[in-house]
Design brief:
There is one protein chain. By secondary structure, the chain is α+β, with helices and mostly antiparallel strands. The protein is about 55% helix and about 15% strand. It has 3 helices and 2 strands, in the order ββααα. It has helices spanning about 30-55, 60-95, 115-125; strands spanning about 5-15, 20-30. Strands 1-2 form a two-stranded antiparallel ribbon. A hairpin with a 5-residue loop joins strand 1 and strand 2 (about 20-30). It is flat.
Length: about 130
C-alpha cells in the first residue's frame, strides 16, 4: 500500500445473456507517480480548454492552426489515459469477449437416391455387386 493511502475503485456491472448480474470491483492504489500523471493530464485538458476559449481568432488560418494544435494535444492525452487505464480495461475485454470453444459439427452426409447412386453407395460400403 502506498504511504499516502490514496486509491480509487474501478467497478462495473455485468449482465449476461441469462440475465444474471455480476459485480466486478477493483481497488487500485495511487502511488505518487500515478497522482502526478493524473494531475498533469488534468492540466493538459485544462490548457486545451483555456486555449480554445481565450485565443483571439482573427483569420481562418488562426482557427485552423489552434484547432490542429489542440486536437493533437487531445489525442495525446487520450492515448496516455488509455495506457493508464489498461490495467482494468484488459479485465473488461475478458468479459466482453469471452473465449468460446468452437465445437465442430460434422456435416450430414447427403443421402444418395436413384439406381446409379445406389450402386455407388453399395460399392463404397463394401457390399458385393449383385448379378455379375
Amino acid at each position: 500500500m502506498p504511504p499516502n493511502e490514496l486509491f480509487m475503485y474501478v467497478g462495473f456491472l455485468h449482465v449476461n445473456k441469462a440475465g444474471e448480474f455480476k459485480y466486478h470491483v477493483q481497488k487500485i492504489y495511487l502511488y505518487e507517480k500515478d497522482q502526478n500523471f493524473l494531475k498533469n493530464l488534468k492540466t493538459m485538458l485544462t490548457n486545451i480548454k483555456s486555449t480554445m476559449q481565450k485565443t483571439p481568432l482573427t483569420t481562418e488560418a488562426d482557427y485552423v492552426k489552434i484547432e490542429k494544435d489542440c486536437e493533437a494535444t487531445y489525442v495525446r492525452a487520450v492515448e496516455l489515459f488509455n495506457r493508464f487505464c489498461q490495467s482494468f480495461t484488459s479485465k473488461l475485454n475478458d468479459i466482453i469477449n469471452p473465449k468460446i470453444e468452437e465445437v465442430k459439427e460434422e456435416a450430414p452426409q447427403p443421402e444418395v437416391t436413384g439406381k446409379k447412386g445406389a450402386k455407388d453407395a453399395g460399392a463404397k460400403s463394401g457390399a458385393a455387386p449383385k448379378g455379375g
